[in-house]
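Notes taken during the Thursday session

The instructor put the following on the board and asked us to keep it in front of us for the whole hour. The protein is LysR family transcriptional regulator. We were told not to look anything up and to reason only from what is written here. First, the residues (308 in total):
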Amino acid sequence: MKSIEGIDLNLLRVFKAIVEEKSLTRAGERLSLSQPAVSHSLGRLRTLFDDPLFIRTRAGMQPTTAALEIATIVSKALESVQVALRYAQRFDPLTSTRTFRLSVSDAGELAYLPAIWGALQPAAPNVRLGVFPLPVDEIEEALRSSNIDFAVGNLPTLTSRTSQSPLFDETYVCITRKRKGLPAGATISLSALQAARHVQVSSAEHSHHAIETAFVQHGVKRNVVLEVPHFVSLPDVLAATDWYATVPHHLAAVFAQDCPLRIYELPVDLPHAAVTLHWHENFESDEANVWMRALLTDVIQGFDKRWA
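Then, after some discussion, the predicted structure tokens were revealed:
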């Protein structure tokens, strides 16, 4: 049985890079190593594991069966080392140059990101923020592997698989450009809603899909004349048309700051969306994670109170 003593653990980083990149050149670029250095490391890895590990094909360096089995173990081992090293680092927000990575929907990005950055700059002037919207089924693994640090949104399938903290409950409203002849009252009637032309946002966010489903269940038939993939284009579209859109209440309030909008309550009861902050249990006590969780919670809950 081989002993870990005397083994260069950097070889495992090289192994992982080749598995993921399927190219010695790209693996070297990722690790800032020359191709000869990567080739030399691969030779040592082959000796260490007594297996070819990778076969050169037109599609790149394809891992052998043994390499695929080893890859899972190596990936978890490197993640454990990373977690251990993070615990050894003291976090000082005033001097830290850490990058926090956040997965949030386009609606959340529009609504919360300016306030988050506004709070982050004076408190942690050298800290950087990256936003990486991910499909829901990829978030848990991304949190576990530190590809992202946090996820914010209505993500009910994650509540049993991650650490989380509730932020607020989101409701939906109907918006349109202010103009003469609009329906009176705070709530748009069902007949007016169905007679209007609508922009539908095909956002990947769970709550927005739930709203569309709820309309169908209530028998509400809307005349959708435009479907867009993101919320960001809505203000310009509504400013140029007489169309309507159903959006999160907080996002409607943000849009109304720059675009004169009429905001209506909806004539049917739609489900509320629980907006939640998620992180991985491995980082429950990590100083930086704890600090950033507190900042995100304060900012987003403050945002909720502002537009309630």
